Amino acid sequence: MLGGVTRDGKCAFNDLSRLCLKACGELKLVDPKINLRVDKSTPLSIFELGTELTKEGLGFPQYANDDVVIPALTRWGYALEDARDYSVAACWEFLIPGCGMDINNIDAVNFVGCLDTALRIVAQRRGDAELSFDDVKAEFFAEIRRRADAIVEKYRHVEILPGPFVSAISTGCVANARDLCKGGRYNNFGIHGTGIAVAVDSLASVRELVFEKQLVTLSELVTLLDTDFAGRPDLLAAAKAAPKMGNADSRADDLAKELVDVWGHAFDGKKNDRGGVFRPGTGSAMYYVWHAREVPASADGRLKGLPFSANYAPSLDVPVKGPVSVVKSFTEPDLVPVSNGGPLTIEIHDSAFLEPDGVTKVAQLVKYFIDRGGHQMQINTINRETLLDAQAHPERHRHLIVRVWGWSGYFIELDKCFQDQIIKRVELKG
Amino acid sequence: MTGRVFEIREFTLQDGPGPRTTVFLQGCPLRCAWCHNPEGQEFGGGREMTDLEVADEVIKTADFLVGSGGGVTFSGGEPLSQAGFVLAVIDRLRRAESHLTYAIETSGFASAEVYREVVAKMDLVLQDVKFPDLEGYRRWTGVDASSIFGNIAWLKDSGVPFVARIPCIPGVNDTREAKDGVARLLAGAPNLLKVELLPYNRLAGAKYAKLGRSYSPGFDGNRVPDLSPVKIVPSPN
Fold it and tell me: B-side interface with A, Cβ within 8 Å?
């Protein structure tokens, strides 16, 4: 973790930070994962240093926005000085080194699953004629809260294996003769939220197809989800054409705002047995593949078996206007309450760096995200042709690096399902 | 007012200063043998949009464009073939956001009046220069280029900053002679920022089959064009 501020709030980006960034650009290795803390006052030149690594295709730095993360941590009860000292646990979940015993990714809620359940409940409960879109939305949000409550119950009693080494380098453990597994200064649980964009797109599609255009009833739609839209290519096309998150289109973005707001407050007032709170986030970790297997087709036109987008990103294979609209859409929600971690993840075509000033222009895009209140962002520089060639001829691409969910890896070492998911991501051309 | 647009693309990085949004206007009077956007040639194609719709689309991300020193570029097709529409869009954008910059990428094929009226509104012109002579244009693009040369001559004295873009087509205009001719044509322009040599796009033929057309450009597309630089004699003053 580079940059950010000191415990007393002064700028901590220094010559060493600069050297670390330069060294990573020369080494071109997947580790260490570089995170860069920035805020509104960070000059463009620092974003440019970071973008030099993006240009190399390393998939990092991952940017974290102090303007969002520090208030998020203090809202969850962290002391201001500790909050200013934040780092990340593994991928992007925030942690205070030396005093945190947070479990940052204890579980996850599948938003696409929540919507699927809600659609079935609503379709069964009432006749189609009496239904309104507000009923669907209310049931969807209620289902999110029910699953949040279930997680609270599920982790009532958590035992953690002792960690003598970590305890030895953590504040107070030795002095108190108490292993960190018995609790640290902070004992919060982080919860991922999977498939935000797919859920938002599906909700927008339900509104358009069932309630606005009335092309299909809700119960018919549920049947179509179970049969993968069999025999109804017209409705599948209509679902795919409905508004999508990432196009600066308020018909989708307003629903995202509501969803993120409900998720951000789903655990308000809840405590775990160590006195810690629950921190909801927008990250998916590997759940974007796992959770996708638990649900049938979704109302946005995603067929059964296709993965969700990773973390906080437009759905796979959807038409988006470009990276500026993506940034605009994904910074519409208030991200402070969902800052457990989970970066906006975008893919930029490598042609963006053809001209030398491409670095400046991509850096300006990152700065735009930060200035608009984005919490975290990571960028893959890829070329779909290269990825396909690497699947066919792995021996020619041994050093090809991609950003997977919260880490960068060698493309040819990934399982095929993770390779395919990256190939399906929306490639944004400059 | 309505115009025909074939694409509005955001975050274009090679169409002028800063990140830009590029409005590609449908329809082109030229028929360059090497055209890699044949779907943009027919005037009846694309999508009909009003000046308001185009402006609204741009305005959605105008805060980013302004904050990054970017703006809007009009390309095509040939944007000057829809000059009135371009001016109407600019007029709307100016009223909504006064700090955008404007650029146009053009072949220069338009009447002197149209060319001057539109260029006067621009912060930058990306001026195509394909040949130094009428014969090259006639043979390879199918037009009488008198107006193009007249407009380039005017541009050199206009004070509007411009970039000259030369598509380098193997065996067609990548010869020493052709490039020297273009260099002589461009010499003496204090507002010429740079000259860009654009290599022939070897995938140019890919889209023709989809349009039910054949691609037989009349030159060897597999040959690598000579991209050695053009030497421009400095302006005498």
Answer: 8-14, 18-19, 21, 60-61, 64, 67-68, 70
| A192, A210: one domain | yes
**A199 and A327 co-located in one domain:** yes
**Cβ contacts (< 8 Å) between A429 and chain B: which residues?**
9, 11
CB atoms A361 and B19 under 8 Å? yes
Give, in order, the Cα–Cα distances in Å from A331 to each of A52, A193, A335: 24, 17, 8
Question: How does pLDDT run across B97-112, given as a tens digit for each residue?
Answer: 889 999 999 999 999 9
One-letter identity of residue B42: E
Q: Which of A393, A388, A392, A420 is nearest to A404 (CA)?
A: A420
A323: chain B residues, CB-CB within 8 Å? 10-11
Q: Each residue of B8-30: pLDDT tens digit?
A: 999 999 899 999 999 999 999 99
Among B61, B67, B68, beta carbon nearest to A328: B61
User: Which domain covers residue A289, as residue numbers?
Assistant: 97-342
CA distance A391 to chain B (A): 23
Q: Rounded to whole angstroms, what are the CA distances from A63 to A38, A344, B111? A: 7, 10, 51
Q: Is A328 on the interface with B (CB under 8 A)?
A: yes
- Which chain A positions have a beta carbon within 8 Å of B21's beta carbon? 324
Architecture of domain B2-201: Alpha-Beta Barrel (3.20)
Shortest CA gap A429–chain B (Å) = 8
Q: Which of A296, A313, A342 is the last residue of a domain?
A: A342
Query: Does residue B221 have a pLDDT over 90?
Result: no
* CA pair distance A49, A358, nearest whole angstrom: 12
What is the predicted ipTM?
0.88
Reported as a single tens digit per residue, the pLDDT across A211-231 is 999 999 999 999 999 999 999
Domain ranges, ordered by start, for chain B: 2-201
Please tell me whether residues A51 and A145 are part of one structural domain. Answer: no
Q: How far apart are CA B214 and CA B207, in angstroms?
A: 9
